[in-house]
Design a protein that fits this description.
There is one protein chain. The strands form two sheets. The chain has a three-stranded antiparallel sheet with strand order 3-5-4. The protein is mostly helical and 361 residues long. The chain starts with 11 loop residues before the first helix and ends with a helix. Among the domains are: 83 residues, no CATH class; 61 residues, no CATH class. It is built from 16 helices and five strands. Bound molecules: zinc ion. Zinc ion binds next to helix 6.
């Protein structure tokens, strides 16, 4: 049985209250829940609505200091800033915003919707118009080489103008009386200069944020990778010995995939259990094949050499034992410093007689 959803019965004041501390992504999803929420969150003229988005922006996008551009409300601004993906073809993970056109899009979609200055000059030149003048009031972005591999002058980056804007101003210009044109052009020139200054400031603000974010994310990825590594290094088996040997782990696809992951989320305990479940079968298989190779090689050694090699390996294993990254012994005085290595052989002899250990190597 389905009745009316209780959430949609919330009075506006309470709804506004709830929204006060929500991040942009939550507000954007809330607006999609039902017509009522959409109404509350997408009203262009309502003060509380604009306030909700402004709050969310200043709390969760603190790097954005500039107010929304002309003719863009807070919601549209926050949406442009915080969503990811191309607005046109929906290609994911695109975050490049072209402030000149106030769009977030991929390069192919940008090329499709813009015109190069040289093309505009060619197409719109007539005895009635000088394209460069007509374009004065428009904002533009710098293009890119048409073909990455052909950087010859004919393909050099030209300024790109939004096609619809170009045709709009062109038609606007053609409709003018010839004696109005001079003033029109002067106004457009001033307008264009102001708009481009605004665009440049927004590009800088966004670019700075981009680099700060990228380096923050890089740091988070490194932290994640080192957490994974230290968890693997600390893991023990039933004998209380280290579960994994790093040289073998480093050959495991599962490990490499986890280390190279682009995720910036903290590596949780749950993620560790998941990783371990995938790592163990691959590790066991690899370790078994190493063991077979080793046994084949040992057949070529004399008995003494084979035993000595194994003893050396055990010794290496034991010396690795008390040193998982974090609990490195701290020598606070000379006495302790001398004592520490003396403890080692005892562990070695105690463990050296463990047949299981030798067989497991
Ligand atoms: Zn696209």
């Amino acid at each position: 049985m389905t009745g009316p959803c209780i959430a949609t019965e919330i009075p506006p004041e309470i709804f506004i209250n709830i929204c006060q501390d929500l991040p942009p992504s939550d507000l954007l999803s809330l607006a999609q829940v039902c017509k009522k929420f959409y109404g509350y969150l997408c009203s262009t003229h309502s003060r509380p609505t604009q306030e909700i988005w402004r709050n969310s922006r200043s709390q969760f996008l603190p790097y954005v200091k500039m107010l929304p551009p002309d003719n863009m409300d807070e919601r549209q601004y926050v949406k442009l800033l915080s969503e990811r993906g191309c607005q046109f073809c929906k290609r994911p993970r695109i975050r490049r915003i072209y402030w000149a056109f106030r769009v977030r899009c991929c390069k192919p979609c940008l090329s499709e919707r813009t015109m190069r200055l040289d093309q505009i000059r060619r197409d719109l030149l007539s005895k009635f118009s000088i394209p460069d003048d007509i374009l004065r009031g428009l904002t533009y972005t710098t293009g890119f080489y048409k073909w990455g591999w052909d950087q010859s002058p004919k393909n050099r980056p030209a300024n790109l103008y939004w096609k619809d804007d170009v045709y709009r101003v062109y038609n606007e210009y053609l409709k003018l009386d010839p004696d109005e044109r001079k003033d029109w052009l002067l106004n457009k020139r001033k307008e264009g200069r102001q708009k481009m200054e605004d665009v440049a400031q927004r590009e800088i603000e966004h670019e700075n944020e981009y680099w700060v974010k990228s380096s923050e994310n890089e740091k988070k990825r490194e932290e994640r990778a080192s957490t994974i590594e230290s968890l693997i290094k600390k893991e023990r088996n039933d004998f209380g010995l280290l579960r994994f040997k790093m040289p073998i782990v480093e050959q495991c696809m599962v490990y490499n995939k986890a280390i190279m992951s682009s995720s910036t989320h903290t590596f949780t305990n749950r993620a560790w259990i998941g990783l371990k479940n995938k790592l163990i079968p691959e590790y066991t298989k690899l370790a078994a094949s190493h063991r077979t190779q080793r046994q084949a090689a040992e057949k070529l050694f004399s008995h003494d050499v084979a035993v000595q090699t194994r003893q050396m390996d055990i010794l290496k294993l034991i010396f690795d034992l008390p040193r998982p990254d974090s609990d490195q012994p701290v020598f606070d005085n000379a006495e302790n410093a001398q004592e520490f290595p003396r403890n080692k052989p005892e562990i070695f002899f105690a463990a050296g007689f463990n047949v299981n250990l030798i067989v497991n190597l």
